[in-house]
Amino acid sequence: MDAAQPTSRKSPAKDETMTSSSTAEPLLEVRDLQVEFRTKAGTAQAVNGLNVTLHAGETLAILGESGSGKSVTAQAIMGILDMPPGHIAGGEIRYRGEDLLQMPAERRRRLRGMSISMIFQDALSSLNPVLPVGWQIGEMFRVHRGMKRREARQKAVEMMERVGIPAAEKRAGDFPHQFSGGMRQRIMIAMAIALDPDVLIADEPTTALDVTVQAQVMRLLKQLQEEFNMGLILITHDLGVVADVADKIAVMYAGRVMEASGVYSIYSSAAHPYTRGLLASIPRVDGADERLDAIPGLPPALTDMPPGCPFSPRCAFATDRCRTERPELREIAEGHTAACHYAEDFITAEEDPA
Amino acid sequence: MSEKTELDETTTRDARASTTPPSEVKTSAPVGAGDGGSGRKEAEASLWADAWRSLRRNPWFLVSGALLVVIIAMAVVPQLFTSVSPHACDLSQNRQAPTADQWFGTDIQGCDYYSRVIHGARNSMIVGVVVSAGVFVIAVLVGLLAGYFGGWIDGLLSRTTDMVFAIPYMLGALVFLNIIEDRGPMQVALVLMLFTWPTSARLMRGSVMSVVNSEYVMAAKALGAGHVTIMRRHILPNSLGPLIGYSTVFIGIIIGAEATLTFLGVGLQQPAISWGLQLTDAQSYVTSSPHLLLFPVIFVGVTVFAFMTLGDAVRDALDPKSKR
User: Fold this and answer.
1) In chain B, which residue's Cα lies nearest the Cα of A196?
2) Fewest CB atoms within 10 A around its CB: which of B42, B131, B233, B275?
3) Do B224 and A144 lie within an 8 Å CB cutoff?
4) CB contact under 8 A, B234 and A128
5) What tens digit of pLDDT does each residue of A49-82 get?
């Protein structure tokens, strides 16, 4: 058991259990969140009882393949879910102890951008094509802080410098299409952090970028997060990106958290076969000519969930119990939760190779 | 930074050609106008330059633009074109065929027909421009609210639009104008406005709906923009293109409609001077004095043609898909 305890390279406070309460008040706490989409084919349960907690200065990576509900979670937290067809069926999203879902719309709108902010996957389509970028960043200051134009523009240029855009003063009048992908994402980041938010949600911020630029943007995010002491929720499907930046990881599958823990224990002692499958599908430099192990099959249709563990149809270790009884997310080691009936077996198997 | 090189002039241009969304251009006025500082001049130039470049290369724009300059000048300062008063008539000289002296001949009252036709431009223009501007405003309001909010607001506005749309505007205008005793250009314009706005409103609603789900609107929402900011800054500038093109074409349509209504006897009334009234007078003398019909028809035709061609050219310039 002791060996399974992750050794945190960050401050110990960051590697806490995601479900248990901590000493400091969490910035953001999602409790039993349920999001449904009412479609013609039936009700699709996109998020099904999600629990995550985020503290200041902490990076939480939500990991999962497409359709696992990670973007929907982000939209639900931001309050920009398309409703209808989307519908929050239950749960609460607490920001500094206050439930966002019960908050009046206007008050919640004020929190957006000010306290909770978000950056999107494709910065080109997320920036207004007809407005100069400096103007768009400056709008944050005008709308939320009531600044005058000149002052707002000055602040916008400052923000652009801060996110590493060369010749910011000169480029503030340029339009989004005149920037490269990486620069656009920096502009999006500048807008999102302009008002010094407590929580920043990054929805696949580097997916649309090429690999060299990905690393730069991630570094920038990390650096800004430390500088502003933000809580960062990083939504991604890229395990490689996560390893560098995240403090803790929640692996999502079919709208549920399958496994959550500090970043090290995920890599060193993954307790869920799904997480193991994901890890096995990363190419390794030292892996010689071996074929990559892909997880067979596809995620279940959200309108037609299997009765037991949602991963059971694709799981090589599934038993009859898996197919009938849904495993709850439970603590298997300190700061490490997993939703698998046999989580302990996986960890012990790893520890005693003999 | 490794990304500095991307600012190469050609790449930028290419990127713009392929990725500019609809209606990049016409927004620059409200947008650029507000921004202080040095970025402003460049920004404006780049927005306008784009549409202007594509317009300038379009021969149809040049032809229709030149025609419109002449016609608008006629409407504003007819004295530039003729020194003869349209009210200086000599009954004994009525229905004279065109001569070197009187290019278009004289009308039934013996007035100089050239002067009458030139002075007729003003009323047609007033009706055309007032109706088109009014309909533009209605269409923007209705289309924006319906397209942005959706739900019951959209239901209410769209069904109202459909109901008005179901009435043929000529029929509606005929009935209404018949009731109004005293009809000047403004009365005609108001009635036409009342029955012609649905087409534009539907067009606007459609283009708003194509913008409303775009990611930058969602991003603006996520960053805390309110409804008004989103509509004004993000949706309007990106959805106005098609309506601007159509509104130009629409001026031409309305000028034709005004002439038609006046010809049918429910538009403008004597002693107003208008192409429609000239056509009404001409109808009894088509065989004996065909010039009475010919000249106003040419003027109406050329004006309508010019507006329609210009509208098409503008719409194409604002449409990213037609950009080369």
Assistant:
1) B223
2) B42
3) yes
4) yes
5) 888 888 888 888 888 887 788 888 888 888 888 7
State the smallest CA–CA distance between residue B160 and chain A in angstroms.
24
Contacts of B47 in chain A (CB under 8 A): 130
Domain boundaries, chain B: 60-322
Bin A66: left if φ > 0, else alpha if -120 < ψ < 50, else beta.
beta
Note whether A231 and A199 are within 8 A (CB).
yes
Q: Is the pLDDT of residue A143 over 70?
A: yes
Class of B60-322 in CATH: mainly alpha
Looking at chain B, which residue has its C-alpha nearest residue A157?
A: B39
**Minimal C-alpha gap between B58 and chain A (Å):** 23
Cβ proximity of B225 and A132 under 8 Å: no
Nearest Cα to Cα of residue A158 among A123, A198, A190: A190
**HEC-encoded secondary structure of A202-262:** EECCCCCCCHHHHHHHHHHHHHHHHHHCCEEEEEECCHHHHHHHCCEEEEEECCEEEEEEE
Cα–Cα distance measured from residue B262 to residue B68, given in angstroms and rounded to the nearest whole number = 22
Tokens coding A200: 């920043």
A312 lies in a domain? Answer: yes
**Whole-number CA gyration radius for chain A:** 21
User: Does the ipTM exceed 0.90?
Assistant: no
Query: How many domains is chain A built from?
Result: 1
Nearest chain A CA: its distance from B214 CA (Å):
7
Mutant choice from A111, A125, A128, A154 vs B, greatest count of B C-beta within 10 A: A128
Closest residue by Cα to residue B203 from B125, B140, B266, B261: B140
